[in-house]
Amino acid sequence: MIVSVIGLGHFGARVATRLSEKGVEVVAIDSELELVEKIKDLVTHAVCIDVTDERALRSVNISEVDVAIIAIGDNIQMSIMAVAMLRKLGVGRVIARATNKLHEHVLHEIGASEIIKVEEEMGDIIASKIIAPHILQQYSFAPGYSIVQVKLGKRFAGKTIVESQIKQNYELNIVAIEKKVPYITEEGKSAFRIEINDNPVPMDILGDDDVVVLVGSDKKFNELFADLSA
């Protein structure tokens, strides 16, 4: 897969480097040479061009990328022009960052495939962490539905999955469990290693320090979080 990340501020640079770490071929683009220089050794290609310049974009074979991510957040006009240019050049999937509702609407109208609302999503994450600090990560994969990493704590410690009745009471599915397993190093010291159980069965036992990955509706998650906070 080839992904182009356009706009190498904090958000764009983070997306580009994480994709590269996961083995994706990344073409990082920005009009500021300093930002390109910072990332050039961390991605496949890094180029300094004006993304509103059709000839410049053609020179880097932008039409051959599988996905283009417009990470520009501080220049709405540039963001809109970049999406329009990429669609003109035949990029099939264009994911764009929107900073407000009007920006989001315009991006949809000119053909952005998906919209990223960083500020809104970060606001939701921070609010969730304040209300329910046991939540480690929450990812929305469809309207009203999420994948959540959470520490269930002592409430369910020592119980099997079936005994916890999480499925029956909250209609949430446990899809993975991360455990810290103690062991003795070659030097004779106590240490821990992380083990992932990505196929949990009903008789697996939950520990108070386990990180559990759950899937289900946000409404049911709120019920679980309220009980955990009680």
What is the share of helical residues?
25-40%
What is the molecular shape?
elongated
Q: Span between N and C termini?
A: 46 Å
List the helices and strands in order: EHEHEHEHEHEHEEHHEEEH
| Structural Rg | 22 Å
CATH architecture of the largest domain: 3-Layer(aba) Sandwich
Percentage beta strand: 25-35%
CATH topology of the largest domain: Rossmann fold
- What are the segments in which pLDDT stays under 50 over at least 5 consecutive residues? none
The CATH class designation of the largest domain is: Alpha Beta
User: Strand order, biggest sheet?
Assistant: 3-2-1-4-5-6
Main sheet overview: 6 strands, parallel
Number of domains: 2
CATH homologous superfamily identity of the largest domain: NAD(P)-binding Rossmann-like Domain
Explain the overall architecture:
This protein has two domains: 2-116, NAD(P)-binding Rossmann-like Domain (Rossmann fold, 3-Layer(aba) Sandwich), CATH 3.40.50; 121-229, Alpha-Beta Plaits (2-Layer Sandwich), CATH 3.30.70.1450. The protein is built from nine helices and eleven strands. Strand 7 and strand 8 (145-150) form a beta hairpin. The longest helix has 14 residues, at 118-131. It is 36% helix and 29% strand. It has 230 residues and is of the alpha/beta class. The strands form two sheets. A six-stranded parallel beta sheet has the order 3-2-1-4-5-6, with helices on both faces. A five-stranded antiparallel beta sheet has the order 7-8-11-9-10.
